[in-house]
Design goal:
The protein is mainly α and 528 residues long. Helices cover 48% and strands 5% of the residues. It is globular and about 85 Å long. About 9% of the residues have low confidence.
Length: 528
Amino acid sequence: MDQYSDQTQDRTQPDAPDAGLATISGRTTDETLAPYAAKESSTAVTASTSARPVALPSAAGRHVLNRFSWGITPGLARAVAGGKHLAWFDAQLAPARIKDGPGSRADRWWPDLRRTPLDQWMRYRDGTKSNWDMYYEHGQWVMAKRLLSHRQLLEVMTAFWENHLHVPLTTDGHFVWRPSYARLIRKHALGRFDQMLAEATLHPAMLCYLDAAISTKIAPNENLGRELLELHTVGVGHYSERDVKSSAAILTGWRVDINDTWQRLYVPEYHATGAVRVGSFRSANRSSDGRAVTRQYLHYLAHHPDTARHLATKLATAFVSDDPPRTLVTQLAKVYLDADTRIAPVLRTLVRSKQFRGSVDEKLRTVDEDLLATFRALRMKVTGHVDGNSGTGVLRSWTGSLGLSTGSWPAPNGAPLTADYYATPLRALASVSAHWSVANRWYPTQDTVYRTPDSWLPALPATFRQICERMCRELLYRPLNARLLTAMATAAQVSDVDESLNADSIVVRYRLNAMLAALLDSPEHYAR
């Protein structure tokens, strides 16, 4: 059983390498497992290494998995077989009921992320661990959770909401609080937006990032007050400058003891009193303790119809189309308000909509989605973390090479949800390089278990076309088409696709890795 083969069972023991898997580890010295072995040595084919082919999910099942997981695996393909994709989706909406041994193991690989903010700060001050090391470890943890967790919908929605309520992983002013902020978003990612908004807005990471932690009644800082309206709730065009000033005034008093204890505080002496008005929200705001007014204000924003439409637009953009259908946005916004800001009913409506069903393969994978789907398609096992050469370290590093390091978007508006940012020549070249590296089992070189090339084969002898059909189904979970066959024939330098091949053929011995890379470089792999 491979690392991704069963998305419902909890396996608390470390995974052992399977037949057909080659281990690349920082503690392995066998010369046959050297990084270039896949290219320089031939493939030995035996009947035992040709496992039973995975069953193809239906087009509808593949569509749901492409949009709401970080890449299809044999276990996920089985979970949606027989038209069960909506049942799988509904079960994923209750992540606490899904056992997740692999995800829990990933949590234990970076224990420093669980340290208190003060402890992290003291370790930074005495030189034990730099802020950059914390950024890097956090990014690796994020990618590991997405790669390994059985709670795939939770991981997808955590990424969506962290991007919506964006606080970069790579900014100095709040790094000691950033892991805590990630856990907060994860807790609410499938819950209620009103609760998530209230806790995220007043979290020290957000207060520090958007300067509310240093805002006072004498010198109110408007950054958080403005972005709360423009980015997090009602959206552009639905607030005035007067609203911004009142929004900033309401948020005064919420503080963080920056560069000292890093405690979260409320200081009544800093709260600006006096009447405030944002949209139809009004408060006399007479008390120097403005915490109640703040919570009433955030509740008002979370339940505002403009917020509902703003969130519905972003959800439809992320999971349906770069040009979201207006009718769907209207429908999702109504469900959001009727459900008292609960997220699950909105997602159920979205995934059952005709607009969603009609958007198969219309979205382009982002940088993170591309790399994670590649690792999962190749069934690469990540068994731990030693250093930057480990699978998790390479994943984190490669996101930067492809154009955007995980969680590093520098502005508060979050990374783009549409293809125009990701569909660039630089990204394409970097993706091809990454695909080629893992298809040849060159890199990563530590704590990683690769599937051997011959394990993708059908029983031999077989025609080149039959080999391609098997590989396409195993890697892309879809039937072979003429374009993919041509690409694979070009990669393998084959002119007769109906020629029968055996274990001693040049293609089988030396060119399977190039065929795998051709599939990973195809539009079918980039699409989601």
